[in-house]
Specification:
Layout: E1 2-7, E2 13-21, E3 24-32, H1 35-45, H2 50-57, H3 69-83
Antiparallel strand pairs: 1-2, 2-3
Helix pairs in contact: 2-3
Length: about 80
């Protein structure tokens, strides 16, 4: 199982911890941010393939911000794919 930590940029959450096994997301934990929303996102993508999660989450914005916690998770997953 691969575990990695991602420092977010431009959102309320400070960082994200992700566990991936065989290309499938096993768990996601946001540190900071809107607890209900980040827990919901984490629960919804558990069991999803990394590529599908990137496709679904990429580009989501939070209010007037150019990014969001889900978008930052897609950035984390893209970084993971680039390194593996």
């Amino acid at each position: 199982m691969d575990r990695f930590h991602y420092q977010t940029k431009g959102v309320c959450s400070r960082s994200i911890d992700v566990e991936i096994e065989d290309g499938v997301i096993q768990s996601v934990q946001f540190h900071g941010g809107c607890a209900g929303n980040t827990q919901g996102v984490a629960a919804l993508i558990r069991g999803m393939r990394v590529e599908e999660a990137i496709e679904r989450l990429s580009g989501i914005r939070c209010g007037l911000k150019s990014t969001s916690c889900p978008d930052q998770l897609s950035a984390a997953l893209r970084e993971y794919l680039a390194k593996n």
